[in-house]
Amino acid sequence: MGGAAVSSLLATPTPTSRPRSVSTTTVPFSVNLSTAAARAPRLLLLSRRPRPAAAALGVSDDTGVKMAGSDIVGKNDLLIVGPGVLGRLVAEKWQEEHPGCKVFGQTASTDHHNELSNIGIIPSLKGSTFPQKVPYVIFCAPPSRSDDYPGDVRVAASNWTGEGSFVFTSSTALYDCSDNELCNEDCPSVPIGRSPRTDVLLKAENVVLEAGGCVLRLAGLYISSIDDYLKGTLDTRPDHIINQIHYEDAASLAIAIMKKGHRGRIFLGCDNKPLSRQEIMDSVNRSGKFDTKFQGFTGTDGPLGKKMENSRTRSEIGWEPKYPSFTEFLGLDS
C-alpha cells in the first residue's frame, strides 16, 4: 500500500515496501484525516465451494515461470501475498516464532525481490506457478494494483492446503455506521452497490469466507513520518473520528488469528482509542518530535466517521496491542 504516515489523514492505508526494522520514532501511516473511516468489513457468508486445485499466483498459469524454492512444504510454511510493510512485519514475527520455516512472498513486480530475499522471504512474481499448496496464507495486497481483486484472492485461496489458516486483511470501511457512532464486530456491513471501493472488498471477503478463511478488518494503519502533512492547514473537518492500529499490532493480531485456526470468521483490528483529527494533530504538535507545526483545519463539511471497538476480537483471540493508543505511541499520556 502506498505512501507513509499521517498520510492516513488523507487516504486509506496499504502496505508498502519497507526496511526490515521499524522505527518507533515515526508517526502514523493511516490516520485518514480527509477520507471517512475507510476500512470495510466483509459482506455476506456465501455457501462453501470445494477449494480449487492449486493455481498460479497470478493472472494465468501459462507464464512459463516457476517459483523458486523447495518443493517440500513444511507444516509452518507461509505464503504472503503482498509483502509490503504489513506483510514484511508478519514475515519477521512468523520466522521468529517458527525457526526454519519457509516464507514465500508474491509481488506484482520484481522491484523489491532482492530486499525480500535479504530478509528471508522467497520472492515470486504474480503469475508464476507455485510448486505446492501451503498451510498458511495471508493476503495483504491492496486492490489498487489488481484488475480482478476477488480473482487474485481466489488464486491465493487455491494455494492454501486447508490446514493452518488463511487470513485476508480488509478494512473497517465496510462497517455501515457513521456520525461518530460506536461500531464493533456485530455492526452490519455496507450493502453491495454502496461504492466501487467497498464492493471490491466485499466481493474479495466473500471469496475468503467461502474458502473457509478469515477476514481481518483493519482500522487506519500507522508507522511512518508525517512531515509531508505538517504543511500548515488541512481542508477537512477537525471533528471527524479516526480509528487506528499500529502496523506492528496489525501484524501480531493477524498472526494470532492464524494460530487460532478459525474458519469463516470476520475479526476487527483497532486500538480502541478513536481520536478526532484535531486530537491527532494536537498530539503530534505536543509530542515535540517534529520541527514543523500543524496550524489547523479549514473544512467544516464531510462525514463524521465512527468509533471502532474490538473487545470481542481481543477476547476470542487472546490479543492485546503493543501500542494501546496513538498518543502513547508518541510518548504522551492518553
From TrEMBL:
Keywords in alphabetical order: Isomerase, NAD
Biased composition (Low complexity): 12-25
Region (Disordered): 1-25
GO molecular function, one term: isomerase activity
Similarity annotation: Belongs to the NAD(P)-dependent epimerase/dehydratase family.
Protein name per the record: NAD-dependent epimerase/dehydratase domain-containing protein
Organism: Oryza meridionalis
